Amino acid sequence: MTGLASANQEHPVLRLEQMLLRGLKMLLTVVFALIFALVTLLVILRYGFNTTIVGGSEATVMLFIYTTCIGASVDIARGKHIRIDALIGLLPSRIQNWLEGFILLLIGVLHCMLFVYSMEWISIVGNSEDPILHIPEGIVEIAIPIGCFFAILFCVTRLTALVLTSCSDPSNNAA
Q1: Which phi and psi (to 5°) does residue 136 adopt?
Q2: Which of 64, 65, 151, 173 would give a disulfide with 73, using CB separation of 3.0 to 4.6 Å?
Q3: Counted domains in the chain
Q4: What Gene Ontology terms describe what this protein does at the molecular function level (predicted)?
C-alpha cells in the first residue's frame, strides 16, 4: 500500500465506514447463524418429533428480511453492488471512476426514494399485527428503511473514497 492510499484510509469518513462495515458484517453473521440454528431445530423437531415451534418459520422469514436489507447495503460498501464489469473494465481508469461515481449517485438516489416511500408505506400498514407472533408488522417492515439508510451512507462514503483517490492519483487528473 502506498503512502497516499494509506493516507486515504486514515480519512475519518473512511474509518467510520470500515468500523460500521465490520459491525454490520458481525451482525449479519450472528443473524445468519441464528437462522441456521432455528431452521435446523425446526427440521429436527418436525421430522424427528412431529412437533414444531409456533412462529419459528415466521421468525426465520423476518430475520431473513433483515439480512437481505442490511446485506445489500454492505455490498455497496464492499464495491459489489449490481453492475456489469465486462465492458467497464476495458475503459480507461478515469472514465471507470466517473462511471462508478455516477452509478453510486444513481444507487443513492434510488435508495433515498425507496426510504421515503417505505416510510409512507409503514405508516399506513405497519400497525397490523402478525397473526402468529403477535408483533406489529412495522417491526419487520422497518428493515427496508434501515437498509436504505445504510445504503445511502455507504454511497456517500464510497463517493468520498472515489474523490480522495482521484485527487491523490496524478494519473487520474491527466486529460
Answers
A1: -60, 135
A2: 151
A3: 1
A4: transmembrane transporter activity
